[in-house]
Batch of 2 targets.
Target 1
Amino acid sequence: MRKKEINPELDFERISVLYENTNVSYFSIAAGVLFFGYMIDQLASIQAVYPWMIAVGIAYIPRIIISVTFSRKMKAREITFENVKPWENYFIYSSVLPFLCFSCAVFIPFEQNEFIALLYYAVIVMTLISGGILSYGTSLPTIFLFMNASMLPLIVKTFWIQEALFNALGVLLLIAYLQISRLIPRQNKLLVENIALRIENEHQSLTDPLTKLGNRRRLYLLIESLTPSSLRRKDPFSIVLLDIDNFKLFNDEFGHSAGDDLLVEVSDILKDCSRDQDLVVRYGGEEFLLVLPSTSLDSAQILVDRIRSATKAKTNITFSGGIAMHSEHLSFEQLIEKADQSLYAAKHDGKDRFVLAKP
């Protein structure tokens, strides 16, 4: 059996949408609880209203806390592709109790008003499920949990009461349950496919088509977040600007097709030598830029030596480059200029070398 392919970026977007939509859905949940609380007061007794509403309110507190925590961590960029998956489980676990508490309303004794009360409850539940399909739609376990907790006790209650009118309502609800059960996976698939398509389109707009490295747009998107974060944490980052030596002569001798193959091979070497948190960008024709978070000049030089060794082992070309470290006194444009000046110095000094920019 083929294992399901894991896509951390898809999970990140999918779970982010789940929390974002849920924050909006709290208003509809509150409206549903208040409305049915009013109906309990009118059709049963005020003694039954407050315990039920208080129980539902208390049960939702852990989930609200988790939602707020998730939002704060997202703003602080503490949630990443690698650690986002457990947050779906946190959401599901924190939803079990409030969903069950809400469904306990069907067991309140309404006596002669039983059918009217269950009919109102059915309308509220179907309305909330319609919104829930959109709110929880990116998480299949969550939406099925919500639907089962909301509808199954109601369906059981309608069949438990041995009266034709209740049984007829139960049949209608059972048909709706089966139809919605078929609809939910399709809706989930469409939502997930739309998210995957959006991610793919974003990747294409941020990726160099030949080398599959990042392009300048992706570079500046990273810098927008990296620069303030680096300054705030006093954790500088370094960049490496490198250029293939004598690339024009290589193209003239072997042809542009061979030159493209060489660029792809070099790109693979740069990716293999880099860390997961590093960004490798095709900066120009045969120019590449590496952004190295939390990296000093000495550490950057160790990476560069690794790149040079791998390049000489796998190809017949050499690199020249400049290394510069960011500081609070430099804009990113000035940092690029310092690295470019160091690259020029490396070319001027005989190529096949790297020069450190002065702090």
Target 2
Amino acid sequence: MQFNVTNEEYEILKQYAEEKNLSMAEILRDYIKTLPKKKVSP
């Protein structure tokens, strides 16, 4: 998956990941896990 972010957004994510000693991908995956789940209709 690819998506665009601004330079400022990139730097914010990069700095946060460095502070937490995690990869930027891990930060994004962890965030996605916090989103509300919706039921999928069959």
